[in-house]
Amino acid sequence: MAEETENKRALVIAAHPDDGEFGAAGTIAQWAAEGWEFYYLVCTNGAKGTSDPDLAPERLVRMREEEQRNAAMTLGARDVYFLGYEDGELLYTRELLGRVVRVLRTVRPRAVFTHDPETLIHTWGREPFQGAVNHSDHRATGLVSIDAVYPTARDRLNFPEHLAEGLETHKVSEIYLWGSNTPNFDVDITDVVDTKVAALMAHQSQFPEGSAFFERMKDFWRGEDGRMAERFRKVILPF
Ligand SMILES: [Zn+2]
């Protein structure tokens, strides 16, 4: 148990470049400053993230990888893994599960941050009938990540080729799901909101209108008490 309480590594598993920042940048910035080591795993290549007909998808993919690395470094994260699946076409497959498990067994995080796969429609608990469809890549990423945590990465007979390569099984202790309709854990990010915005702005290809967009986002992040928060469904896994 001593090893687990001293383990301050976290893996952020995102469908697209920039999802990790929207979901958890303020938390990453604060925890990294407290000694946590953050790693990212981005499942898709972000190749659909443009309305510019003159921007070739291959060039956009390279731009978005670079932007994601810059965003992660802005927050004090250590490294970014990319799986490179086609944007908008992510499916729950045995291959995807195995690749996520491999990264879990490599990074060996205590905490995993990812999309809440139970959210089909984001409701935000605000206006009645108002909602937004949760992207299918987000749902696939969240679902495969949770299954990778339990039981797949933990049990040695799952993807035994990893063990043959020298990796060990791994047990994650905490899951933090962003984009949840049933959040139970708030992280106050008021003091680091400018760092969150800076990390999001690192995704230059995505936010051509720049800081004006994020001034509106701050209103979205602000609660009734005037403080800004990231809201997660937190799950502790005792077993
Ligand atoms: Zn996304």
Fold and architecture overview:
- The protein has 239 residues and is of the alpha/beta class.
- It is built from eight helices and nine strands.
- The protein has a seven-stranded mixed beta sheet, sandwiched between helices. A two-stranded antiparallel ribbon has the order 5-6.
- α2 (19-33) links the parallel β1 and β2.
- The longest helix is centred in the N-terminal third of the chain and has 18 residues, at 57-74.
- The site of zinc ion has 5 residues, from loops.
Question: Key features?
Answer:
239 residues, single chain, 9 strands, seven-stranded mixed beta sheet, 8 helices, Rossmann fold, 20% strand, binds zinc ion, alpha/beta
Largest sheet: 7 strands, mixed
**Would you list the SSEs in sequence order as H and E?**
HEHEHEHEEEHHEEHHE
Ligands bound, unique? zinc ion
Alpha-beta classification: alpha/beta
Per CATH, the superfamily is LmbE-like
Low-confidence stretches: none
Q: Classify the beta-strand content into a percent band.
A: 15-25%
Question: If you compute it from the alpha carbons, what radius of gyration comes out, rounded to the nearest whole angstrom?
Answer: 17 Å
Top-tier CATH class: Alpha Beta
- Amino- and carboxy-terminal Cα gap: 12 Å
Question: Tally of extended strands?
Answer: 9
Label the overall shape.
globular
What is the arithmetic mean of pLDDT?
95
Q: What is the helix content? A: 25-40%
Strand order of the largest sheet: 3-2-1-4-7-9-8
Helix tally equals 8
The structural domain count equals 1
CATH architecture heading: 3-Layer(aba) Sandwich
CATH topology: Rossmann fold
